[in-house]
Amino acid sequence: MREIELNGVRMTSESSAQEYLFDMFDFPAYYGDDLEGLYDALADIVEETHVSIINREAMETTSYGSRLMWVFEDAADDNENLTLAWTEEESGEYE
Prior knowledge:
With 95 residues, this protein is α/β, with parallel strands linked by helices. It has helices at residues 14-25, 35-43, 56-60, 63-78, and strands at 2-7, 49-54, 82-86. It has a 3-stranded parallel sheet, covered by helices on one side. The longest helix has 16 residues, at 63-78. It is globular, with a radius of gyration of 12 Å.
């Protein structure tokens, strides 16, 4: 199983989030640097993948971060290979 740990502080604005997510997920070239492209890329994950996100409250305080949360939750609901956890516990592996 692939495990990806993300920090919500890095995903509060579109410009910071898109570059961060592209690097963390190693998305394919079709990834469109927008929320629709992110959903498509997450929905297309075929390897069992678990995503842990800390600092949810940082995302909740911005319009973009809130929309990004919905994308992650929708993709996890629609893709059986993708699971999602919101946590405040850091493992020390965040970039």
